Structure formats: structure tokens, C-alpha cells
Amino acid sequence: MKTLKIAIQKSGRLNEKSVELLKNCGLNFENYKSSLISPVSNFPLEILFLRDDDIPEYVQDGIADLGIVGENVIEETEVEVAYLQRLGFGKCSLKIAVPNNNDIATLADLNGKAIATTYPVILGKYLKEKGITSDIRTISGSVEISPGLGLSDAICDLVSTGGTLKSNGLKPFADVMSSEAVLIGSKGSENNDLIQELMQRIQSVLRAKETKYVVLNVKRDNLDAVIALLPGVKSPSVVPLAEADWVAVHTVIPERDFWDRISQLKQAGAQGIVVMPIEKIIL
Ligand code: AMP
């Protein structure tokens, strides 16, 4: 069977979460910072550690079958790859930001202005769509300092908390795109059996992350009211307790409506609610 290759970021923001995801999929490999390639001992897979800007092209050209990279990098490199799975980490947005004290009030005010960015392709498309003609200045880093140095009137850069903008006297002005880490594959890779197996593992880890395992006790009289509040994978397990008129209910609850659900369950008579993380959910 052909050994697959997956390219992940060698160092930087996405490296740790990418390694964690693959390890949570049960893959055994060494994460040596010095090596560029690491074989997986229990799956026909090799991990390539690369600069994230290079990952889309490696995948497009089939040198790597799969890659984990930010959507922003894929859009900027304009490669032809298959988007296989959003991964829920590395979330950020590409924003135009302007100095706190400035005369830019509407998008049209960016006409004729200089905007510094490391994302000229994405910014160029955005401005074209909006009918704005600006002078895009492509620089390779430290974009936030360029208005202060007189190099540009505005910037277009990735923002997650906004802290870097603030500390450079800038404020967000317009959202250009939002991004997160995604699993990409070479065109047609969706049909490969090994890739499908790996994707099932990844999806089971992601599903588990979004969900909590909940065990609670409830009087039999209140059982129907409690069950009505539980989405569960299928239907909840109901286990008799030593006290004859009480039962324990085991179920899973989506993380996003967790606290609402817990208070509703308490009101319906649930007691001794125990909440646990889940490692994997295999459907
Ligand atoms: P880096 O390690 O700084 O090269 O960032 C790698 C990737 O992390 C970027 O291409 C984005 O997809 C993602 N990312 C998430 N939050 C941010 C942020 N605040 N600034 C830069 N990149 C971010």
C-alpha cells in the first residue's frame, strides 16, 4: 500500500495544534524539531514539516497528499486543491486596519491610499470587488509598523485578538476574510481509501471536542422531562440505581449549548450532574 504524506507547519502558530490533532488520531510519530520528515509507525503515513506558505503548492503538485494550513495561505497562493475538512483551530481574520487618528471613514476613502500587506492577492481581489483602487504595498512582515513609518496609510493583516493592532495605534476598519486551519488534499484525494480512513479519525476527534459526556441522576417521576431535554447520539442510556425510584442517565451534549442545557436539566429535576471530556466519537 502506498505511504501517504501529510504536510504540516514546521514551527509557528499551527504547528502545536496540528501535531496534537494527528496524535489524537492515534498516530505514533516523533515530533523532532530538527527533522523535516517523520514516519508514522502505526499507519502508512509520513509527516512532512514545512513552512506553511509552501504547503498548498506541495499538495497541489502531489508531493504531499494532504496538508494542514490556514485558509488565508491557500487563498493567497491561488492553488487548486480539495478542501477536505475545517479543523476549528488557527482562527483569525484578515482585516484592513487604519491608524486611530485618520480621515478614513468609508471604504471609498481608501481610493488612492497606500495599503501595506503580506496578502496582496486576497487584498487585490477584495478591493476590486468593492470597486476601490488603492496602492497595494507588498511587504514580508511587521506590517503593523508601516503606517507609523510613513510607508502606508493603512494595513491589511491577520488579526485574532486585536492586541497587536492596538499596541501599534491601529484600529480594525474592514473584514476582508475569515480563516481557520483546514485539511487539504491533492485533487481527487477524497477517493483514496487511506485518506478516507484518516479523515474518519480526524472527524471523530473533532466531534468529540464539540461534545461533553454527561451523567446525571433523576427520580423516575422526572425522567421523561429530563429525556425530552437531551439530544444524545441516539437515545440516552438509563441505568437503575440502588434506590429504586432513582435512575442514572448517560448522554452527550454539544459544547455550544452546554450551560443552557445544564440549567434546564436541573430545573427538570436532574441532580449530581457529572460532566466529562470525550476522546473520540465514532459514528
Ligand atoms: P504564523 O505561525 O504566524 O506564520 O501563522 C500561521 C498561520 O496561523 C497564519 O497563516 C494563520 O492562518 C494563522 N493565524 C491565526 N491567528 C493568527 C494571527 N493573529 N496572526 C497571524 N496568523 C494567525
TrEMBL record:
Keyword Metal-binding belongs to the record: yes
Primary localization: cytoplasm
Enzyme class: transferase
Domain ATP phosphoribosyltransferase catalytic: 51-203
Residue ranges of domain Histidine biosynthesis HisG C-terminal in the record: 208-280
Biochemical pathway: Amino-acid biosynthesis; L-histidine biosynthesis; L-histidine from 5-phospho-alpha-D-ribose 1-diphosphate: step 1/9
Keywords attached to this entry: Amino-acid biosynthesis, ATP-binding, Cytoplasm, Glycosyltransferase, Histidine biosynthesis, Magnesium, Metal-binding, Nucleotide-binding, Transferase
UniProt note on regulation of activity: Feedback inhibited by histidine.
Any one Gene Ontology molecular-function term assigned to this protein's record: ATP phosphoribosyltransferase activity
Listed PANTHER family: ATP PHOSPHORIBOSYLTRANSFERASE (PTHR21403:SF8), ATP PHOSPHORIBOSYLTRANSFERASE ATP-PRTASE (PTHR21403)
Family listed: Belongs to the ATP phosphoribosyltransferase family. Long subfamily.
Name assigned to this protein: ATP phosphoribosyltransferase
Organism this protein belongs to: Mucilaginibacter pankratovii
Gene name linked to the record: hisG
